[in-house]
Amino acid sequence: MAKTEQKASEAPQASPQASPNGARRKPLPPSGGYSLKRAILGRPLPTAHLIHERLGKVTALAVFSSDALSSVAYATEEMLRVMFIAGVGAAAFSLIMPISFTIILVLVTLTFSYRQTIKAYPSAGGAYIVTKDNFGLLPAQVAGVALLTDYVLTVAVSISAGVAAIVSVQTGLYPYRVPIALMFLGLLVWGNLRGVKESGRLFAAPTYVFILGVMSLLAIGAWKLATGQLQPMPHAHLAAAPVNGGLLAGVSIFIVLKALASGSTAMTGVEAISNGVPAFKPVEWRNARATLLIMSGILGTMFLGISYMAHRLQVQPDQTNQRTVLSMIARAVFGTSAIGHAGFLVLQIATMAILVLAANTSFADFPRLANFHAGDSFLPRQFTRRGHRLVFSNGVIALAVAAGTLIVAFQANVTKLIPFYAIGVFTSFTMSQAGMAKRHLRLREPGWRRGLLINAFGSFATGVVTVVIGVAKFHEGGWAILVIVPLMVWLLVRMNHRYEHEHHELEDDLTEIDHSDLHRPVALLLVDDLDRKTIHALQYAKTMRAVETHAVHFEKHEGFTEELERQWRELRIDVPLKVVRHDGDLPSCLAGYVGALSDDTDVNVIVPGPAEMGFVERFKRGRTGAQLARALLPYQRARITLVRDHVGPGHKLIESAGGVTRISVVPRFDHQAVVLVDKVDNATLRAIRYAMSLGATEVWAVHAAVDKENQEEIIRRWMDLRLPVPLEVIECWDRNVARSLEGYVVELMGKQSEVTVVMPRRDYAQLRQRMLHDRTSRKIARALGRYEHVDISVVPFYFGKRRRGAAPTPTGLRLT
Predict the structure, then answer these.
(1) Which of 37-51, 68-82, 663-677 has the highest mean pLDDT?
(2) What single string gives the DSSP state of each residue in 28-87?
(3) If we measure between CA atoms, which residue out of 648, 650, 632 comes closest to residue 640?
(4) What is the pTM of this model?
(5) Which letter does DSSP use for residue 15 in this model?
(6) What is d(CA 749, CA 26) in angstroms, rounded to the nearest whole number?
């Protein structure tokens, strides 16, 4: 008896949040995880500052052009490598300039085509938006997936090429190329998670140093060639070109096309500016067009210059992959003097930096493109969320994981990755330009004929290159991309069908709330021991004014149950204790008990919890809660409320004149019910109905506004449905919904107030369905669960055709 009295009657302790006059309280300090995020990424940026995170032309050139500009470091080398592997010998040096001019012709076409696109689609003119607008959603998925795939490969190829530039200086680092590549990848992730402006400042300097270094190399090389100070490199066992080789120098057309396919990687990244138009300062489209023109001019000059130097110096690729063609040209041009060696080192370091940072173009555009897909319900909705620093953090992390996997799988080898490269981006080029051509024909705006000519030729030119790349690289691994893209499109379409099905279940047959349909619930208190947390949960059951209260103990050990029953009787608790003896586990037994109640009964299963839980305890209780929720899946009118222990007043031991001790449990004087609203649908209406049935002093609904369009849609629907609960909209300035709601709930807490937070939760039977949705509700529950007298009530909305009775009622239950 003494043990039970101690548990149930521990003296109340002063709460650090409690105020003696019932005044409002302050939120608890942020969790350790949030503090760590702030230390790594900086303070959160308000959503209103999104306009201030825009880029000027100078910074935008570094952010969006580093991919295209850096490709000159390996595009010429890959052309030469294809021809030398094929054994064409010295003929490669005769063919490299014609192939390079062909690539430049396509580049010029793309530049003027995308200038048309940027003006037509100033909100974002990438292949996905253009294709969706002109051909529909399904073709847009093909263009989008092709581009997403290419962005992943861009990160892997660029970082691997950057590591190769360092290995060219210090060949002893070759065995460590994969760890070095992953270290650079981590740096990029950190820089991008800090925000657009932060990444722009971080990456601007290397881009401009690289441009200056290459331009200096070409200028010095041209002067030395003109003055006869540079001579072709000597090569042993190099086959001479055929004397009467003709136009292709005796080389088969297939080998030339393969070289063209590899060299076309110089154009990857050209579309990045059109995808990132919203990131520019106003006037966005005009600044984007100017930046695109500057980038293309610099790219074309550097690419042709390096190809010309390789042609004149007859640079043969290093088959051991320890020296790059650009490094060999730099050694020859800068010479062996101290100044020349310093120039060589600066260029190699700048090359390494821009190649690594070239992946930043993908980090700028992949999350934005994934956001478009997710907004159309073709990717998980998590990709639409802006993170701590106003970037699409989930997109950044997903890209890093995919690219890191490729780096490890292919050992950071550019030659092994190149066959997979460029197919996707040229597919998107073709579809984007075809979409623009159709737009000109459809709208016939002023100047449409000129635009049609530019975009139609651009579509034709890039379409030819797409076919060439696909055929030339098919047997080297290109077939994998041709399989992966349709497979991913199929998966995205399946995902879209799932979202559409869920949308119909949530949105169909929305009706006004009928007050006559509201019934007080039955409180079902789970009792595993007679301690303070159980008494507190019993107090909550009385506060919610249930139609009846069941205190149920599912017997585990017969001896313990007898002692529990004896203590319950001796304390004269006014709610009888029911003992259920069973042969199964707790979830199935609970389901059996709930199933035996009336069909039209709302049941609130109250689960007592301790005031504080460590990680292990939280994990165990989380598993138990999930098992209970799954067991109650067939019972649509069942809810689960977690009531945490507290240190405040409300229950005490009373000793009567006759020496008999009993325990007094009284309801809280003030009971606030708060319904969390993220959208107005059937799940939210069910939560509102439940909150109104609790008999609370006041019932509120609150929406933490992250997205303005969603906020306006919620207010409109709320008014249309004439919902009888007042709605409050609070600004979630840092997009941290859990912290915003935490502050709101704390404001409601008075000295004698009980707050029930009613959370509509959309539950899914299958894991793959649950992965399509975020875990915001769990974050909210963790944040609010730290406060006394704040109780979390989960009102589930189950998808699918499960109905009451779909699960068998457990047998072997005996009620005493």
Answers:
(1) 68-82
(2) PPPPHHHHHHHHHH-SPPPGGGGGGG-B-HHHHHHHHHHHHHHGGGTHHHHHHHHHHHTT
(3) 632
(4) 0.71
(5) -
(6) 10
